[in-house]
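sry for the spam today, last one i promise. struct tokens for design, 386 residues
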């Protein structure tokens, strides 16, 4: 087994799709699932079958349409949910049941009105029951971010003994700091006696803007599965974004971790999910935002044109973005203007750059951003090409 392989578990169609306004039809979900397959995702969480007939049917149809990744369905820790998941997954070539229950004292007391002992018994029983349908059972310890580490270790040891092959340690409320979350994962590797029989999974929410940082801290402390969504969509402030984790591990390849993600497909699936789920990506979003590679200050544009690595740690082509999409503004310099005019076919030895640059500044003062159509207008029909 490759110790540094990080498995990517995508939950865009389950945790992401729970967001009000983001609901997809079954046909749309199949389109997204096929793109996730092409992207190289290892596990697709296709839905929560007991939650609605539509979700159930989507899991059935995705199981038929997508064959490469493992198809996963979510359940609570009860036999009715697990039966529905097993039924919905019946056509999947490789199937996973993802069952679980709360692990923090807050959830145990105020959500389940129960005790730690009873909760561990329910967790154990749910995993044992799910194993009747598949050898691939993942257990989630909801709100593990706020759970007592010693109790969490006890619970995780019990579910692995019951047959869980992946153990998910969610920071359900996005509460942890990276140091705390990393230490929690490390604690489990050191205090769960049978931990070598399961893969530790990290599932982080972004309430404090730390989902990606916590996910990476988890990996660096022993987790080998990351749970993410495209564009980081998800309830409230969202989940860990797949593209950020994939590109962090790729950029910092010296750490030794690797995934199966074909990064060149990232931008395409990002725009697909953005449109289908009606959830606009913020312009300055890392990796896939409109401005993620757009250097607008003159100093930066000049530096990038001289040598890309001056101001870019990522190559836009690596995520499937056309690198020519640099925005020109009133702060752009002559070098950037010349570069774009040449790109559009203008022969600069026949052009007075100083004169064109003055006209460009006047135009840029009136418009926030100058695109190719504006440049063509600036140059007019005259003397410029050939
Ligand atoms: O955030 C969470 O705890 C979850 C679980 C259902 C895995 O989404
Ligand atoms: Zn979640």
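last one done:
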């Amino acid at each position: 087994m490759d110790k540094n392989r990080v498995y990517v578990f995508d939950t865009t169609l389950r945790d992401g799709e729970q967001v009000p306004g983001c609901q997809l039809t079954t046909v749309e979900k199949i389109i997204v699932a096929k793109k996730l397959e092409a992207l190289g995702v290892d596990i697709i969480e296709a839905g929560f079958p007991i939650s609605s007939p539509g979700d159930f049917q989507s899991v059935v149809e995705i199981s038929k349409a997508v064959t490469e990744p493992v198809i996963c369905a979510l359940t609570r820790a009860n036999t009715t949910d697990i039966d529905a998941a097993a039924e919905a997954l019946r056509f999947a070539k490789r199937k996973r049941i993802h069952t679980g229950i709360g692990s923090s004292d807050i959830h145990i007391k105020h959500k389940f009105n129960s005790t730690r002992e009873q909760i561990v018994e329910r967790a154990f029983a749910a995993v044992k029951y799910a194993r009747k349908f598949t050898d691939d059972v993942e257990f989630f310890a909801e709100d593990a971010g706020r759970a007592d580490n010693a109790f969490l270790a006890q619970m995780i040891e019990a579910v692995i003994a019951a047959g869980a092959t992946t153990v998910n340690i969610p920071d359900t409320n996005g509460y942890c700091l990276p140091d705390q979350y990393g230490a929690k994962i490390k604690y489990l590797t050191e205090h769960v006696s049978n931990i070598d029989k399961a893969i530790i999974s990290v599932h982080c929410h972004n309430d404090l803007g730390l989902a990606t940082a916590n996910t990476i801290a988890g990996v660096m402390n022993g987790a080998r599965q990351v749970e993410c969504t495209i564009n980081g969509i998800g309830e409230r402030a969202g989940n860990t974004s797949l593209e950020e984790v994939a590109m962090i591990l790729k950029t910092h390849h010296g750490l030794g971790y690797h995934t199966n993600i074909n990064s060149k497909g990232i931008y395409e699936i990002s725009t697909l999910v953005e449109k289908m789920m009606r959830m606009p990506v913020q312009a300055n979003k890392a990796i896939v935002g409109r401005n993620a590679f757009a250097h607008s200050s003159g100093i930066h544009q000049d530096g990038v044109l001289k040598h890309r690595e001056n101001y870019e740690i990522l190559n836009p082509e690596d995520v499937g973005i056309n690198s020519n999409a640099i925005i020109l503004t009133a702060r752009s310099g002559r070098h950037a203007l010349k570069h774009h005019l040449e790109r559009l076919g203008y022969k600069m030895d026949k052009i007075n750059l100083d004169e064109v640059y003055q006209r460009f500044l006047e135009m840029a003062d009136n418009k926030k951003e100058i695109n190719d159509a504006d440049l063509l207008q600036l140059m007019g029909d005259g003397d410029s090409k050939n």
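DSSP finds 15 helices and eight strands in the chain. ok im logging off now
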